[in-house]
Every structure is written in structure tokens, then in C-alpha cells.
Amino acid sequence: xxxxxxxxxxxxxxxxxxxxxxxxxxxxxxxxxxxxxxxxxxxxxxxxxxxxxxxxxxxxxxxxxxxxxxxxxxxxxxxxxxxxxxxxxxxxxxxxxxxxxxxxxxxxxxxxxxxxxxxxxxxxxxxxxxxxxxxxxxxxxxxxxxxxxxxxxxxxxxxxxxxxxxxxxxxxxxxxxxxxxxxxxxxxxxxx
Length: 192
Known about the structure:
This is DNA replication complex GINS protein PSF2. Component of the GINS complex. By secondary structure, this protein is mainly α. It has a single domain (about 5-190), classed as Methane Monooxygenase Hydroxylase, Chain G, domain 1 (Up-down Bundle). Helices cover about 50% and strands about 10% of the residues. The protein has a 3-stranded antiparallel sheet.
């Protein structure tokens, strides 16, 4: 969902990707090494063909140096995404995904598409999922009320997209509501 420049007060997608780079992911190293101590923790040992968990940024670095194969997460498979897409289109609720699935899948498709089964189909399914979820977000914002908004299972990127609009809309709704309230109650709400 693209917003006008005046409404952009959230993080950029690139910033969200940077945050997502701390997520742990499995790799199969093509080198041998003992445990490696980093600021974010100790990782390893690295013994092919055994899997080991490392932060995504480290996996990307190793992949670019051709020192590992990245093991895609379970949710980044055609079968899983097709199932979730059908759930997404049939249900009014958002289906559950890892909180940073959009950022992680973009990084993996950009850097390690050779480690993924049918990356073009994965891109297509992720795009369809994004469009279905955006349609639900727009519909949910149409039903906005001043008392409560509950949208479970939104992901990081989706929350980031609707945050500026939502914050402004709630502010306007509270102001409109306070104009209809007696003066002493409106003052209490303003002071909050």
C-alpha cells in the first residue's frame, strides 16, 4: 500500500529488512570451523553437511562468498504458500505468518534464489498473498471505530504500512468525538 509522502512517518522497507537480518536461519556450510563468537552470540560449529543456525545477515554474507547453502524456512515453500493463499482468500481473518516473513522472503529471493525450489513461483505466490492481505487491511481500515481496532496476525511490513494512516485517522476520530462531548469531558481527553 503506497502512501503519499505526507503520511510517511514509519520506517522504510530497507530499514525493516535490516532489522529482520537478526533473525536466525539454518545454513549448510561448505567449510569447517569451530564456534564463531560474534556480538549477537556464538554460532557453529560449522561442519558440512550438518545444518547450523546463524543470523540472516551472516548467512547472506557466507552465501555471497559461496561458503554455504541457505536452508529455506518451512513457510517459504510453494505448498505452504498456496495453502495460506487459499486460507487468506476464504477467511476474513489474517492467516498467521512469521512476524518478519515479507522481509526475510525478499532477502532470500534476492540473495539465495538458487537455494529455493522454483523462486519465480514463490515470488508470484508472495505477491498474491501481499495483495490479498492488503485488500483485507484496506477493508479493516474502512471499518475503523474510535473504541477498538483488532487486527491479529499482521506482520511487520503490514503494520508499518498502515501505522501513519491509522494514527492520523484515530486522532481525527478522537477530535470529532470530543467535539460531541460535553466541554469538561473533552478537556479530560485532551489532557491525556
